[in-house]
Structure formats: C-alpha cells, structure tokens
Amino acid sequence: MIVDEKRMLEMLGDAKNVFLLEPPYKRKYPPLGLAKISSFLHQRGIATQFGRAYDGQECDLICATSLFTFQSQTVFSAIDQARFLGGDTPILMSRHILDRYPDLYLFKGYSQALDQCPPDYEIDSEIDEPWSDFSFVFTSRGCPNKCAYCAVWRIEPEPWINPEWHRAVASEKPYVMISDNNLSACPVEHIEGVVEYCIAQKKRIIFDNGFDCKHITPSMAKLLAKAKYTRHGMRLAFDRIEEDGLFQAAVQMLLDAGIPKSQIMAYVLFNFTDTLEEADYRMRECVKLGIRPYPQQYEPLNKLTRDNRFIGKHWDKELLKQFRFFWLMAGHYTKMTFSQYQQSLT
Description:
alpha/beta, Rossmann fold, three-stranded parallel beta sheet, globular
C-alpha cells in the first residue's frame, strides 16, 4: 500500500529495531536514503542494522531501497529473501514496486523530515575511495524544467530549499558532493551561501548533477570561481542541440572567471531524439572549449532490466557501442574525430 510521509515517519518511530536493506547492485555512493533514516532513528534511540542482504536478523521493520529501475531483478531477489526469512516483518519500500508486492508499504518521492537529518556516515556500506572521503549533500530539491528524458520533476515536483543542509557536511571529510538536481535554479543568495560555507569549511566541491547553462551569468561565474573543486567538480549539461551557443557562452564565462578547464565537465545526452551528427557536434564543442565531455546514454525511465538496451530511432546497437567507447576514452577523441575512429575499425 502507498503511505504518505506522516505514516512513514510513524512506522519508523514506532519501531524498536530496524534493518536497513540495500540490495547488492553495483554503486559508487552510499545509500543516502537509508543513511538519513539511520540518523532519524538513532536520534530517537531506535536500533538499526545495515546489510546488502537480509539474513533473518531480529527486527520489527525492514526498510529497503533501490537505485535504478533496470536493477529491479536484484531488488526483487533481495525482497523475496527478506519476505521469506522475515515472515510477517513489514517492509517499507522506497520505489514503485506494488505491482509485484501489493502488500508492501511504499513511500513515493522524498521526505523533507528525513532530508533534514544528516546521513549516518558510520554505516559500513563498503564505499571505496575516494567516495568514502565525501559528504553527500542535497541543499535543495526540485527542478523547474520538465525535460522528457528526466525523472526529477516527476519525483520532486515542488522546489524546496533544505534549511538544515549544513548538517550533512561532515567536518572530518575533505570533499563535498552537492547533488541538487538543479541548484542553479535556486535564488542566487542560496547558491552563494553554499559556496561560501564550503570555502569556510575548507572543502573541495563536486557539483554532481550539473549547472543549467541558461542560469550562468558573469556574476554567477565569478561566484562559482571562488570554490575549490575536485574531480571535474564544475559540471554542466549540454543535452539538447537547442542549447547550442548558450552552452558555449556559459562555459566561456566560467573560464573567464578563472575556473580551470581541467575542473569543468559536461554531461552530454545521446540516444534520445538526437542524431549521431547532433550528438557528435555537442561532444566536439566541449573538446573545442578544452573541457571534458561525458557521454550520457539515454535509457527509458521505466526500463526494468539492462537486457535489450534501448536504441533511439537514429541509432543502432553497434553505433551506440562505438560512440560511447570513443567519447569515454580521451586518448581517442583528443587525437581523431569519431568518423576517423570508425574508419580505423574497418
């Protein structure tokens, strides 16, 4: 059954021992939803256990999470095991899964109450370096854009600034990943507060989900140039050919403000409605500017497995494979064009 935020928080508050279940799919970052639930529960004196599989440990509530829809089979297997070993223990699930398990408790979206809890970084989630040295922060939620290829506006329909976002920044961790879905759409005062706080705390930043190029102005570029970055931490997106000109101007403003080329990266969507020529042009424009392009291959939001990968109407299976490989390898795209690379394969 679908439960609202109030009912979800009641279920958490009424528990005495909660098992936090993250199915064993591949991931780089810690399970933030479960980590925030852990902090919420610990503040109330409620015991928690974390695991990537449920092995029958004593508990009175299991909280399960998921990441991408195409990992659904891994999630299903983890839930099946929890249901078999857990008996009547209720399971609180965070994604759309009721078609298969109509008796699970499903919370859709995100919780502002949980978002204001700092992640429990003490969870032994086996995160590899360098990500174990990062704080993971959402300072805001929502995005005013309604891009057809994106799930954000469906999951987070209303904009919200988290008044407690600072609590997620751990003093002992040298890096901060700002994961807002569209920080650039927030009031400039909030963006300035984020940058200035990270500077004061001597943290290096990754703006993980990218800045919207249409919000970059000379004054915004100067503000962003104050920050210290790591791992191509100043990130933008060049997802549509309609942004041609606007994107290049935004990058130039960032460069003119003093952000090193080595710290700027652009996500470039392909395999949606674009042609090979459009996608290759957007990639090549990034190279001209001296910044790193990252090929972001489109997959439908409701795809349940990695089998039978989606192929856009202007693409084919082999072309997708070649294009992604070529643009992931700087050793190729800095020495030749994609057309030349294709010719070298024949």
